[in-house]
Write a structure and sequence with these properties.
This protein has 240 residues and is mostly helical. The protein has nine helices and no strands.
Length: 240
């Protein structure tokens, strides 16, 4: 039987320690027969326990990771990383490090590989997207469906991915490289750089052509980069 004085002590201690989440432990230690409800802190602690693993690490789980959707995500990541690396990191470092003609020769070897890889991966991604969204290939040409997310992404993949990379690979890169090599030969023949104020009119004409071709290639690459960012953000936010 608990006396009035003991109950008063318990009530006082309870009021003092309740905010700290330890009243139930103190009460049980003083009066083992006292049943006190768990405090919010105890409930919070139980909520921090790890949830059961839904997909344990096993061979079947690893096999399930190899599917068209995961390949689509990996392809988007590959294209985004290679575009950022080539456009803003490796290209800039190479331009600052190598002699100009050596840099041009390097780029003439890298760009066909980069744009062909982008074209092949873009083709797969577009095909998989159309497969995952039946009817989108027809809806792409229906003005009533142009605001649909699946249709917008189909156009992004078709024009922003596949279109820009294919044009850069098959048309613009050969055009740019051809002009560049002509200018290199003319520089050797004239014994002067294209930046020389006394360069020939032929040299100046090639420089203008190269500037135009390079600008077209850069513009297409920026459209490609914007398309990758949009589609990757869409996949991360809304999935397939």
């Amino acid at each position: 039987m608990v006396g009035a004085s003991e109950r008063a002590v318990v009530e006082a201690v309870s009021n003092h320690t309740q905010s700290r989440g330890c009243i139930w432990r103190l009460s049980i230690s003083l009066f083992p027969t006292c049943s006190c409800p768990p405090t919010p802190m105890a409930s919070t602690a139980s909520s921090l326990l790890p949830a059961p693993v839904a997909h344990p690490l096993a061979l079947s789980t690893l096999r399930a990771l190899v599917n068209p959707r995961s390949i689509q995500s990996l392809a988007a990541g590959t294209l985004l990383g290679s575009c950022i690396w080539g456009s803003f990191i490796s290209g800039v470092i190479a331009y600052k490090t190598l002699p100009r003609q050596s840099f041009g020769l390097l780029q003439s070897k890298l760009f066909p590989t980069y744009f062909s890889m982008s074209t092949y991966l873009s083709t797969f991604m577009l095909g998989h997207w159309l497969y995952q969204h039946p009817g989108v290939s027809r809806a792409m040409f229906d003005s009533a469906h142009l605001s649909s997310g699946s249709v917008v992404n189909a156009w992004v993949l078709a024009a922003g991915f596949l279109g820009t990379s294919a044009v850069n690979w098959l048309i613009v890169t050969p055009w740019t490289s051809g002009i560049m090599f002509k200018r290199h030969r003319l520089e050797r023949e004239e014994g002067k750089s294209y930046t020389d104020p006394n360069a020939s009119e032929a040299m100046k004409s090639l420089s203008k052509q190269f500037a135009t071709a390079h600008s077209v290639s850069s513009l297409l690459n920026m459209v490609f980069l914007g398309s990758i960012l949009y589609h990757s953000a869409w996949l991360a936010t809304y999935g397939f």
